[in-house]
Amino acid sequence: MKKFLAIVIAAVLACGVLAGCQGGGSKPADSGKTVFRTLHGSDVETLNYLNTGNTYDMSLAANTQDCLIEYDPLGNIKEAVATKWEVSDDQLTWTFTLRDDIKWLDYTGKEVGKLTAADFVTAAEYALNYYTDTAYMYEEARILNAHELLEQEEGVTFENVGVEAVNDTTLKFTLNKPCPYFLSCTTYGCFMPISADCLTAYYPDFANRASWTPDDWSAFSEVLDGVDYTKLWYCGSYYLSEYSPSEKYVMTKNPKYWDADNIFITEVQSTYNKEADTIAPEMYLRGELEAADITSTMAKSWMADSEKKDFVHPERIQPDYSYFFSFNFNPQFDEEYEPENWKIAVNVESFRKSIFYGLNRIGAIKISDETNADVMIQNTVTPRDFCVSGGSDYVDFEAFQKLFVNDPAKTKDVYFNEEKALEYKEQAIKELTAKGATLPVKIILPYNPNVSDWDAECMYVQQQLEGLLGTDYIDIIVDQGPTQNFLSNVRRAGKFALLKTNWGCDYADPYTYLMGGPFALDNTYTFYYLSEDPDTMAIVQEFKDKCEAANALGTDDMNARYQALAEAEAVLIEHALIIPFDVSGGYTASFLNPFEAGYAPYGVTSQRYKYQHILEKPLNTEQFNAAYAQWQKDRAQAAGN
Questions:
Q1: Which residues are bridge partners to 244 per DSSP?
Q2: Is residue 201 part of a domain?
Q3: 287/337 same-domain check
Q4: 302/176 Cα distance (integer angstroms)
Q5: Residue-level pLDDT at 13
Q6: What is the distance between the alpha carbons of residues 118 and 81, in angstroms, rounded to a whole number?
Q7: Nearest-angstrom CA–CA distance, 62 and 55
Q8: Segment 400-420, tens digit of pLDDT
Q9: Residue 331 vs residue 300, higher pLDDT
Q10: Which residues contact 540 (CB under 8 A, 6 or more apart)?
Q11: pLDDT tens digits, one per residue of 580-597
């Protein structure tokens, strides 16, 4: 065993897990206040943190439960419940040594138990036997027999799964193959501990679970989903001291927390109001709240107001979601939109490239955020600030730089090039005609009417592309999709030619944005695996081969792994199978400094209050931008060490 920190440090450095802390610039003044007040307009659906992927649900568990590891403000992996971990030479066994002084508290702050390794095993036992909402993360983490148990394969029980409490302070995970991003998987709710004593007190038959059937696990889970906050135990930086649905919740600092010195906010108070989006901003301006959600339209108004402009700033981009336009290689839309003609066109690379280089992405992004488009635009599917290695952000690797047709020093959109688009149009016309396609090619472009500004964005794309390439070449049909089950009825049903799609990461590795995610060989984003065109299938095969070769690399050289994944992702872009677009942006009104918070775009880190102070004054846009630039610089420099 004993490939100890050598592997771990190599892995975390490649994922932006860096040494040091935030540097540069003057530190914003602390107000000295310790009570953080906010409003919420939606209720928590369940307090059962082992069976929810809901972001709002997890905002409570992120602060009231702890994980094996955590991330600091620069993205360093740090000890949390675990004080150290060791990785075997074959990279298949991870052994964690746990703190022996962590206490379970009830909702009054009373000590009710001691946390042990068995509490992590209990969580896994429930998650995998019931197949909770995020139990798939055990499979993503490549834990031995997790997939087989989730699929209820004959003869596989939890005893066969690679999760074991060796003793009270030693927890062991056995994998089916090396997992370079294993540590990041442990920061999801399903990996959080839960005491069997707590569950048995709440549901006495839990003591008999060894003989339970799947129906028994379902009955138990249904009851646990409705658990009252007074019945749960807490081991995190806060405990839930008050919770009244549709009224209020209060999280109180845990005085017995192992790292209590880094908890500066002693109480978080959130009051329910169905009109929160409307009234919270004014309450914030009056000093009655420390934070409020704010729309881009409102932010624009505030920034134009001399008395309000310093109370709002852009949000730090969280690279947990990426947006890109997908071409559909298996059209299933109505005959009136000529699916067979589209099938010919989409398999012609020059046709795709005429759209790729012809799309003014910054112009499209400005439809929803006029002032922040240069920050939101992404030239890769894997977003900026997701991973760094060797002193460079993943998106700055040479594999991507060589694809740029514009100078990035002059424009953030390195692909929009009217001259190049028109060149590819002329080439495409010849190839399309030779293949028997008819012009103009109809391109059905759907949108979800429930998503703000999506309709206007599609109208912009239609007018801009048709204006550049000509309506004799393309006929973009903007189509309003259904208000219910849009994904099932449109994207997954293949009823689009071109569609803005997105993907959220699962773990700290670019593979999650590639074949481990939206571009798996059975994906419903492009359906490229169903193409019958030999040229397209050759590209798909090249992408597949590069992904598999990269994924076969272990944790010994994470820089090589990421370089290989970048080469694979570049195949998608170079051949215009997709068009990278943007990440979620927006603005925030808050007395918190986002660069004090722990940083990781996966797991629950971004929802924690740990490390943060309530500022005397909120950051304005100028201060935020300076701090953001310094944070990125510090992060990249540390990665190069």
A1: 248
A2: yes
A3: no
A4: 54
A5: 37
A6: 13
A7: 10
A8: 999 999 999 999 999 999 999
A9: 331
A10: 521, 528, 529, 531, 577
A11: 999 988 889 999 999 999
CATH of the domain at 472: 3.10.105.10
- 108 in the same domain as 65: yes
Closest by CA to 611, choosing from 262, 265, 266, is 262
Instruction: State the pTM of this model.
Output: 0.90
**Can you tell me the distance from the alpha carbon of 296 to that of 310, in angstroms, rounded to the nearest whole number?**
15
Do both 102 and 181 map to the same domain? Answer: yes
Per-residue pLDDT tens for 349-364?
999 999 999 999 999 9
- What is the domain count for the chain? 2
- Dihedral of CA 604/605/606/608: which sign? positive
Q: Which residue has the tokens 């990996």?
A: 191
Chain-centroid distance, C-alpha 502: 10
Tell me the residue range of the domain where 35 lies. Answer: 1-315+589-641
The identity of residue 476, as a single letter, is I
Give, for 480, the enclosing helix (H) or strand (E). Answer: strand 474-480
305 shares a domain with 161: yes
Asked if 327 and 306 sit in the same domain, the reply is: no
For residue 21, which of 78, 85, 82 has the smallest C-alpha distance? Answer: 78
Residue 549 reports pLDDT greater than 90: yes
Domain stops at, among 560, 582, 604: 582
- Confidence label for 11 from pLDDT (cuts 50, 70 and 90): very low
Q: In terms of domains, do 186 and 241 share one?
A: yes
Q: How far is the C-alpha of 544 from the C-alpha of 463, rounded, in Å?
A: 35
Among residues 492, 600, 520, which one has the least CA distance to residue 188? Answer: 600
* Residues 309 and 357 grouped into a single domain: no
Stated length of the chain = 641
Give 336's contacts (C-beta < 8 A, 6+ positions apart): none
Looking at the domain assignment, is residue 475 inside a domain?
yes
Boundary of a domain, candidates 549, 582, 615: 582
